[in-house]
Design brief:
By secondary structure, the protein is of the alpha+beta class. Helix content is 35%, strand content 22%. It has a single domain (23-149), classed as Roll (FAS1 domain). It has helices at 2-16, 25-32, 36-44, 48-51, 64-68, 74-78, 84-92, and strands spanning 57-62, 95-97, 110-112, 118-122, 128-129, 132-141, 144-149. Strands 2-1-7-6-5-4-3 form a seven-stranded mixed beta sheet. This is Fasciclin domain-containing protein.
Length: 156
């Protein structure tokens, strides 16, 4: 009888536990498991606190495979402390201020990035951001949204 009561109490406690809060953009990327390079780069660039901030932000997030497709040595060079400014420029080129959901996109629209350049959206052959394809859209975080892309886009 005591054992049954203990099990019942444990089940009740679990049911009464508050729901988990949505994660911020960084925690969402970490939890996804296929953005290890992006998270390492954001950390090296000193952008973690920014992307954990209030936002909202729209992040076009390249996968680990997208970073691996860059020319050999590119990621390693970008991660060197002396190349931090260049790394920040590349990463912030993937970020648009505000929360832009896929339903907000229109063909041939441009959007100003945090880096200062512009990206172009093309809806003719799926959803393209510059020359990268959006493979998964609208991953919501509590401070914005992530759209997964298959290439690292580089500022001109």
């Amino acid at each position: 009888m005591i054992r049954k009561f203990a099990l019942s109490l444990t089940a009740t406690a679990l049911l009464a536990a508050p729901a988990a809060h949505a994660a911020d953009i960084v925690d969402t990327a970490v939890g996804a498991g296929n953005f290890e390079t992006l998270v390492a780069a954001v950390t090296a660039a000193g952008l973690v606190d920014t992307l954990k901030g209030e936002g909202p932000f729209t992040v076009f997030a390249p996968t680990d495979e997208a970073f691996a497709a860059l020319p050999a040595g590119t990621v390693e060079d970008l991660l060197k402390p002396e190349n931090k400014d260049q790394l920040v420029a590349v990463l912030t080129y993937h970020v648009v201020p505000g929360k832009v959901m896929s339903t907000d996109l229109t063909d041939d629209m441009t959007a100003a990035t945090v880096q200062g350049g512009e990206i172009t959206i093309d809806l003719d052959n799926g959803v393209m951001v510059n020359d990268a394809t959006v493979t998964t859209a609208d991953i919501e975080a509590d401070n914005g949204v992530i759209h997964v892309i298959d290439k690292v886009i580089l500022p001109e």
